[in-house]
Design goal:
The chain contains 6 helices and 12 strands. By secondary structure, it is an alpha/beta fold. Strands 2-1-3-4-12-11-10-6-8-7 form a 10-stranded mixed β-sheet, sandwiched between helices. It has a two-stranded antiparallel ribbon with strand order 5-9. The longest helix has 52 residues, at 5-56.
Length: 307
């Protein structure tokens, strides 16, 4: 049966209109799918950006806090040290001589000892009691030198013997106006490695014989002093961190495991760092960071004497 022309036209128009409507719906559906995919992609990119930013941004470090006391008889090097402690370490720092040394030091997070001349019995006892009572006592340079031969309790605390200058084998000696090459003997230890940059790698042979030479990180402190022959008397109680390498005026190269160590003392700790003769020693960034690390280092449970 043939359709009448008007009906045929109407039918064709309806079909065309339906096709156009279906096409528009299809285009709209495609656009919605693209928009949805774009939204999902944007969300993924935002998440990735947050993750990358979180990974790139270092975790904030806890700011050290606490009061630090410096007991000393030479001002210039200790003023340089106090500046480092305040500006870089953010510590509250106080400097006193022996006469003004408080009897009770328990309020201090750490105490530095830098006494070149005579140390009184009172000072000796206060510092020993502080360490044994749980304090952190940091001895610098001539805090362990020939002048301490008059302080046997101090040498007993530090586990050190100072031989006379006329000792036939290992006399007390000072190498002056020399480069003190501070050699890192514990490259994985927090004190020797945290934020510390070393100048170079040197060949070093431990004074703990027998031993063989090896390559170790080192930094140079120029025009300063080096002490020779600080005898250990306490077996393996010390954790040795640094050795020194020095060339004497006669051209002899001497290496000894004596530039830095720590040991337990009662409920506390004693640290020793041999450099520190001149102000310039406390201007060396690597050495200053090592000093700050002695303050922030926390002993593992296996070493903690307060247990």
């Amino acid at each position: 049966m043939k359709l009448r022309p008007a009906y045929a036209k109407a039918s064709a128009y309806a079909e065309a209109t339906a096709d156009k409507s279906a096409g528009r719906e299809k285009v709209m559906a495609n656009r919605m799918r693209v928009a949805a995919a774009g939204t999902i992609l944007f969300g993924i990119l935002m998440v990735l950006a947050v993750v990358v930013m979180a990974a790139a941004k270092p975790a904030p470090e806890a700011k050290p806090s606490g009061r630090i006391l410096i007991v000393a008889d030479e001002a210039d090097p200790m003023n340089a040290l106090a500046e480092v402690l305040r500006d870089q370490g953010k510590y509250q720092t106080k400097y006193v001589g022996q006469k003004l040394l408080p009897q009770d030091l328990s309020d201090y997070a750490a105490v530095f000892m830098y006494i070149h001349g005579r140390m009184t019995r009172r000072t000796e006892k206060i510092l020993i009691d502080y360490a044994n009572g749980g304090g952190r006592l940091i001895i610098l340079h001539h805090g362990i030198a020939s002048g301490r031969m008059a302080n046997p309790d101090w040498l007993r605390l530090t586990g050190i013997y100072i031989a006379p200058r006329n000792d036939p084998k290992y006399p007390w000696k000072v190498v002056g106006n020399a480069t003190h090459t501070l050699v890192n003997l514990q490259p994985r230890h927090y004190i020797t490695s945290h934020k510390v940059t070393y100048d170079r790698t040197v060949e070093y042979q431990s004074s703990d014989s027998p031993s063989r030479p090896g390559k170790f990180p080192a930094l140079d402190l120029k025009k300063t002093e080096v002490f020779l022959n600080q005898h250990f008397t306490d077996g393996r109680q010390k954790t040795v961190l640094f050795g020194f390498r020095v060339v004497t005026a006669a051209g002899e190269t001497i290496m000894q495991d004596r530039s830095g160590w720590y040991k337990p003392a009662g409920k506390g700790w004693v640290f020793y760092l041999q450099p520190g003769h001149n102000v310039s020693d406390f201007k060396n960034r690597g050495y200053c960071q090592i000093i700050l690390n002695c303050l922030s280092w926390q002993p593992p449970a296996s070493e903690n004497p307060k247990r």
